[in-house]
Write a structure and sequence with these properties.
alpha+beta, three-stranded antiparallel β-sheet, 4 helices
Length: 199
């Protein structure tokens, strides 16, 4: 009967340990007890201080403005990519009510984009894509926001439905920054919810 040398077995075990420990070393968990989520971020991300969140006190992404204010935030090294978090008021738990709320959000964005004249001081919003991931109970909206002062940004809004309510994650980056969009998507994809929604 053929048997592996002990040294070979030891090397295979060591290689497996190193291989499977790399993702854990490459990303760090940030736990938010108040909002009930853990997000795993690569080491290039840092948790944003309160003063950073206050910069967005007047920021309006066009989605469900009835929220508690920005409660958490993260920035990618270099400062060109950010992710800010809020809790939306209300609770939507059935498939039908989630579908209705998704449609309401998209209609409101489209209505807002048509209603804001070019001379207005409000930000003009253009919705590029809207996708709903039924497995993760998450609506993803990608938009371009153009302010009157000429500053433009790509904004990605995720509405995450949980059994306790709705969380809103908003990613911000410069237009055309595909790597920034990818980093935001990967960050939100790592979410683990304390109160996941079972349907």
């Amino acid at each position: 009967m053929f048997s592996f040398p002990k040294r070979l077995i030891s090397m295979l075990v060591f290689a497996a340990v190193v291989l499977f420990s790399v993702p854990a070393v490459a990303s760090l968990p940030y736990y938010n007890r108040d909002l009930g989520y853990t997000i795993w971020l690569s080491e290039e991300w840092v948790e944003a201080p309160e003063v950073f969140l206050s910069q967005f006190s007047q920021f309006h992404d066009g989605v469900a403005a009835d929220m508690a204010g920005w409660e958490a935030g993260y920035t990618l090294s270099g400062g060109d990519v950010s992710l800010i978090v809020s809790e939306l008021h209300g609770r939507v738990v059935s498939k039908a009510s989630i579908g209705n709320f998704n449609q309401f959000v998209i209609r409101e964005l489209q209505r807002t984009a048509r209603a804001v004249p070019s001379w207005s001081k409000q930000d003009r919003i253009h919705l590029n894509t809207a996708n709903f991931d039924a497995q993760k109970n998450t609506l993803r909206l990608e938009m371009e926001i153009a302010a009157v002062d000429g500053q433009r940004m790509t904004t990605i809004v995720y509405i995450v439905y949980t059994s306790n309510g709705m969380l809103k994650f908003v990613g911000l980056t410069q237009p055309g920054n595909a790597q920034g969009v990818k980093a935001i998507d990967e960050a939100v994809a790592s979410l683990y919810l304390d109160y996941g929604l079972r349907q």
